[in-house]
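Trying the structure run again after the queue cleared.
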Amino acid sequence: MSLKRSADRKVTNLPSPNGKTAKIANSFGLPAGRGYSCPGATETCQRVCYAGKLENLYKGLREVLTANLAELVALDRAGMARLLGDMIADFRADCERAEARGARVPRDFRIHWDGDFFSWEYAQAWADVVRDNADVRFWVYTRSFDPRSLDVLPALADLTNLSVYLSVDPDNLEAAAAARKRHPWVRWAYLAETFADGRADLDGLPGKRYPCPENGRRIPLISAKGSACIRCGICPSGRGDVVFSVAKR
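Done. C-alpha cells:
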C-alpha cells in the first residue's frame, strides 16, 4: 500500500529550469466534497472549488485521489501515520537527490491541495507525522473546525512546523470566529467574491491580512524563480491571514 503525492505547480518547492513544471511533488490530495473527504464543505466552496473542477476535468486525477482516500479509510491512526510517514520519507528523498545535484530545495509540504481532514483519527495521524518530521515545514487549509460536525484543531495544536489556516467564507464566518476564540494560534484563509468584499467582511477583526498575490495576478503560478506559494511564503510560514477572491480582483 502507498499514497501518491501531487506535483502542484502553485506550491512546488522545485520548478523546472524553464519555470513551467514542478520537478518535486510536495503536496497531497484527497477527493473533494461532503461525500468524500470534506465534512465541513460550505455552499460557497462547493460552488467555486477549483480542485473539484480539476477532478471532473481529469479522470486520472480523480482516480489517484480516490485511491488515496480508499487506502486511508481502511486503517486506524497508526496505520494511517505509517502510510503518510512513508510518503513524506519519499518526499525527503526527492529533496535530497535534488540537493545532491546542487539545487536549493526548501522542504515545504502542503497537506491537502484538494480534500480535507475527514476524521479525528486521520488528523491525529497527520499530527504524528508532522511531529516526527521536524525538518519539513507543513501547511494546511481546513474547514473541519466546527464541533457540530468535526473539529480537528485540538489534534493539530502545538506543532511548530505546521501552519494551520481555517478556510473561511461568508457561510461559515460565525463558526470560524468561534474556532479562533478557542484556538487563537490558527490563521484564516478567507474567500470572498472580491478582495474589497473580503476586506469589508473582516473589517474590525484583529490580525494582519494579505491578499493572495497569485490569486490577484500579481505573481505567476510558477516561474523559474519558484512557485507562487514558496516565493510568497505567507501561508507556509503562517505569518498572517490571507484573502482570496473568486473574481481574482
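Residues 54 and 96 are 30 Å apart (CA to CA). Worth checking whether this holds up in the mutant runs.
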